[in-house]
Specification:
This is Methylthioribose-1-phosphate isomerase. With about 375 residues, the chain is α/β, with parallel strands linked by helices. It has 13 helices and 18 strands. The strands form five sheets. A seven-stranded mixed sheet has the order 8-7-6-9-12-17-18, with helices on both faces. Helix 7 links the parallel strand 7 and strand 8. Bound molecules: the ligand CSC[C@H]1O[C@H](OP(=O)(O)O)[C@H](O)[C@@H]1O.
């Protein structure tokens, strides 16, 4: 992703300072701050406080956290302690556990003296893989956008609606839902993106910041406007990310996604989900019944963050003093409402057959 002409990933290893550096997303879009992640507590805070956020980016961050743990103490006991310490930071995005499990499986068989080097290499590999997975998702999603564009008068934009930020900032690079947008834009296909604000943390502002940096036309809308826009034929396609998709294609994503899917179905608008395979939880069938939904601090709902008149970043309370807030951070869209899953291996139906067709190695393992 380019920021003022400079390419950035969302996290990177600073070899000179021998430390992981991240973009601290808590202050975006108003303030671009890069911070080091130097201790295990820094890693836990970075994930829980959403300094880094987004399922794939959380996974890559956790892998670097395991690498730090192996530098500090490469014992089995510390590996398990690091796994537990990091895994408990956020319960819903499966990429966190996926990355920690992958690290532990790769490191456990190694002599302790080799673990720190191997862990660091694996974290870098997971980050690089994420970039390539998302690039491929973009290429497959581009073809869907291209098909929609071909049916429109020349020059008329393809109108996409997206919820939350499944963008470059939610991954190491490209984004998942935004990758097809970036690639379509670069291919010269006219786009217009309706960007859901996505209360309560307003990750839509991150998406607006990204799209603006990339020159993609967009409009920031309230979460409740999408159904109206679809009713009036102003949306050609909905595309979102996911934090965990089950083997039968149920999609867990930011709270409010389910409502968008319902409106899309009611208005005949295709609803696609950009799905990197590490976000598939092959152990879960029924997402509504089985996926743990993170309940975050009510202050995220009772207050809102923004730039104050003095130019600083502050919070204001939007509710009466003493009003209780409820803050489930995700919901689950049943696979019946999903038009298709855009993975790095291609597009498939949101079904066990669809996913096992693209990922037979997992289907066989489950038998
Ligand atoms: C590419 S996955 C992004 C996914 O993660 C977001 O959640 P959060 O901002 O709480 O980490 C949101 O659900 C996005 O769709």
């Amino acid at each position: 992703m380019k920021i003022d002409g400079t390419h950035y990933r969302s996290l990177w290893w600073n070899a000179e300072r021998d430390v992981l550096e991240i973009i601290d997303q808590r202050w975006l879009p108003h303030d671009f701050r890069v911070i080091p992640v130097a201790t295990m507590q820094d890693f836990a805070d970075a994930i829980y406080e959403m300094r880094v956020r987004g399922a794939p980016l959380i996974g890559a961050t956790a892998a670097y956290g395991m690498a730090l743990a192996m530098r500090e103490d490469p014992s089995d006991a510390n590996m398990d302690a690091a796994w537990t310490f990091l895994e408990k930071t956020r319960p819903t995005a499966i990429n966190l556990r996926w990355a920690l499990d992958r690290c532990r499986a790769a490191l456990r068989p190694l002599p302790q003296g080799e673990r720190a080097t191997a862990a660091h290499a694996l974290a870098a590999e997971i980050a690089d893989e994420d970039v390539e997975i998302n690039r491929r998702i973009g290429a497959h999603g581009l073809e869907i956008i291209r098909e929609i564009a071909a049916k429109k008068p020349a020059g008329e934009p393809v109108r996409l609606l997206t919820h939350c930020n499944a963008g470059w900032l939610a991954t190491v690079d490209w984004g998942t839902a935004t990758s097809p947008m970036y690639q379509a834009h670069e291919a010269g296909i006219p786009l217009h993106v309706w960007v859901d604000e996505t209360r309560p943390r307003n990750q839509g502002a991150l998406t607006a910041w990204e799209l603006g940096s990339h020159g993609v036309p967009h409009t920031y809308i309230t979460d409740n406007a999408g159904g109206h826009l679809m009713q009036h034929g102003l949306v050609d396609m909905v595309i979102t990310g996911t934090d965990r998709t089950t083997r039968q294609g149920d999609v867990c994503n930011k709270i409010g996604t389910y409502l968008k899917a319902l409106a899309a179905r009611d208005n005949g608008v295709p609803f696609y989900v950009a799905l990197p395979s590490p976000t598939i939880d092959w152990t879960v069938g029924d997402g509504v019944a089985e996926i743990p939904i993170e309940e975050r601090n009510a202050r995220e709902v009772t207050h809102i963050q923004g730039v104050t008149d003095e130019g600083g970043i502050g919070h204001v309370r939007v509710t009466p003093e003493g009003t209780e807030g409820g803050n489930p951070a995700f919901d689950v869209t049943p696979h019946r409402l999903v038009t298709g899953l855009i993975t790095e291996r291609g597009v498939c139906d949101a079904s066990e057959e669809g996913l096992s067709g693209l990922f037979p190695e997992h289907a066989q393992a489950a038998e």
